[in-house]
Design goal:
The chain has three helices and 19 strands. By secondary structure, the protein is mainly beta. The protein is globular and about 80 Å long.
Length: 332
């Protein structure tokens, strides 16, 4: 019997191919095609991560005095027990009508975990836990147990950090029984290397069958490393803008403008504040003034490594009120 060679590959019939029109029609109606094309475009742009939605104004918050002012006498003592654990003692001298207080706090931190807790002489307890489930996904929890139940709070949070975006969901005092609580979701996306935009959705149910919703938008523009513009809305009745500028390596300045318009309450208000921060060789000075005639200043003098002296003052020219504070910071 004669040997018959196997048929060549060219002789094997190929399966029918979809026409170009059918392929384009499939891509037009397939949503995954647009998703893949968008991801490929984002990868080509190589955009940076825009940071967290709640820290859009992180530069100006470090310049303004809002988070640094205090009144009366204060002493903060910190002891580093290990590279991952430290404890802090805070003494606050009482003002007229306010008793003195003492607060004890502890902090533990490593590559994946951050635990912070503090308790004062009134029995108020605050605790915070951050845990990295992966390089991009983080779970957070905060609890606050106060002497009055109306001020107690539980907050659960999850945050995902992408290459060029950050997504966050948050629940405050959630109740699975009656569905009450406050729920927030925000998303911040880099559009270019200098511009990022975001939005936050709010849903709150203070009591059963009472529901409220709101949406906020934010924009952050950073043309260079020493300038930042931020604009943010809160619902439809409030607009806040800010500008931060690093003038020199030791000097920073910023300005904030906030406008509120509530026609139903006949309320139309606006406030403006400017602040400056200057770092000397062994001291830091912050000053701030607003359109209500309030002027404040804070001096932090570094006397020795780990030892600082603080002096704060505030003058309210319209109300005729003055505030004064002295403080010490010791770390060992």
């Amino acid at each position: 019997m004669a040997y018959a060679p196997p048929p060549s590959e060219s002789a094997v019939p190929s399966p029918p191919k979809a026409s170009l029109e059918e392929e384009l029609h499939f891509k037009f109606w397939n949503p995954t095609h647009y998703y893949k094309a968008l991801n490929q475009h984002r990868l080509r742009l190589n955009l940076p991560n825009p940071g967290q939605f709640e820290y859009l104004n992180k530069e100006i918050k470090g310049t303004m005095l809002t988070n640094f002012m205090f009144e009366g006498g204060r002493a903060d003592l910190a002891k580093i027990l290990s590279p991952n654990f430290q404890v802090m003692h805070t003494f606050q001298l009482g003002l007229p009508g306010q008793p003195s207080s003492f607060e004890f706090a502890g902090v533990y931190a490593d590559e994946d975990t951050l635990m912070h807790g503090k308790m004062d002489t009134d029995g108020n307890l605050q605790a915070r836990l951050n845990y990295a489930l992966s390089k991009r996904l983080q779970a957070k929890a905060q609890a606050q147990v106060m002497a009055t139940d109306s001020q107690s709070m539980l907050q659960l949070e999850s945050e995902y950090t992408g290459s060029d975006y950050t997504a966050n969901i948050k629940a405050i005092n959630p109740s699975p029984v009656d569905g009450t609580g406050i729920y927030l979701a925000n998303y911040l996306q880099s559009i270019t290397h200098k511009l990022s935009v975001g939005a936050e959705l709010l849903y709150q149910c203070p009591m059963p069958k009472v529901q409220e919703t709101g949406i906020s938008f934010a924009l952050r523009y950073q043309p260079s490393a020493d300038r930042v513009w931020v604009a943010q809305t809160q619902g439809t009745n409030m607009l806040s803008t800010s500008y931060w500028r690093r003038i020199t390596e030791k000097c920073e300045a910023g300005a904030e403008l906030q406008m509120v318009n509530v026609p139903s309450q006949g309320r139309r208000e606006a406030s403006c504040s400017v602040g400056v921060k200057y770092e000397f060789a062994a001291s830091t000075v912050r000053a701030m003034a607003d359109n209500f005639g309030k002027v404040s200043m804070l001096l932090e003098e570094k006397i020795a490594p780990g030892f600082s002296f603080l002096l704060s003052g505030e003058l309210d020219h319209l109300k005729g009120e003055n505030k004064f504070g002295l403080g010490l910071n010791l770390e060992s």
